[in-house]
Each structure stands twice: as C-alpha cells, then as structure tokens.
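The authors assume throughout that readers already know how a fold can be written as discrete tokens. Each protein is reduced to its one-letter sequence and a matching series of backbone shape codes. I therefore recommend that a typical entry be quoted early in the introduction. For illustration, here is how one protein appears when written out as sequence plus structure tokens:
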Amino acid sequence: MRFRPILFIAFVSLPLLAHAEPRSCLVVGISDGDTLTARCGHVGSYEQIKVRIAAIDAPERAQPHGQRSRQALSRLCYAEKALITERDTDRYGRTVADVSCNGEDAGTRMVAEGWAWVYDFNGIATRRGGGLFKLQKAARAQGLGLWADSNPTPPWDWRRERREPHWSDAFF
C-alpha cells in the first residue's frame, strides 16, 4: 500500500479542525488586557482554559497602563458568556483564540479603545483583513488609552528589557 500524504495530512488535521468550532464559555478570570480564564462545558463537567486573545498584546500588569487595560477587558468580559474560537496554542500552553463577549470581538475593542497593540504573530491580524491596524492607528491619533503617552513601550519590548540574561547572551 502506498503512503498517501494528502490523506495523512487530513487525518492529522482532524483534531485541529475540531478546535476551530466556537465554544460558549463563562469568563471566570482576567489576568491582564489580553488573557482570560474561562470555563467551558456544563455544570459539573467543564474544562477550565487559559485564553490569550489572538492578534493583540496588552501591557503587562506591572507596566504603565497594565491595570487599566486589564480593567477594560474585565468590563467587557468578566462573568460573561464568551464565544471562543481557537486559533492556536502558545508556548505557555494557553489557547490562542478569537474571543467575543456580549456579541463584541474583545481584541477589536481592546485595540480600538487603545488598551492593546496589534500583535501579528503567525499573521492572524493580517488574515483578518488588516482592520485592527486601522483601529490602532485611529486610537493612537486620538490619544486613547495607552496612546495618551507620547511613546508607550510595547509589551514585547518591556518583557525583553526585564528578562534575566541567559548565560548564552554573553557569547553572542
């Protein structure tokens, strides 16, 4: 019997396709402006998942605007039913997903209000049509949220600056 790569790819992809189906979950915690905890399933039989909102990166809690960003996501999603559409899993094991609370896309709202940057990891923001970039530009022009600062530090730079040097950093 010959190996059929297309059938193999289809077979291996089935579990990934199953996760693409939106799940209705209850938001039970907000870690920061781009991460929440949700319970999916039924009472007595649920799964608790940590969700990183796709295509955005919000200030860390200890970073300027971090608490206000967290509060903005909390106002939108905490203790609400959320529609969670999985896109990926990050290196920390969190579900990377589009999240909709009260019928509103949480990532879109966070960027539009100036509480998060567009984070185009894996091209998710670009595949969504680039609308997030336009919303970020408008929020910046209006000085909304973190854009009230003239030059806010993106969270990926802020994390890098605070990371402890690795022993190999001395050699490269």
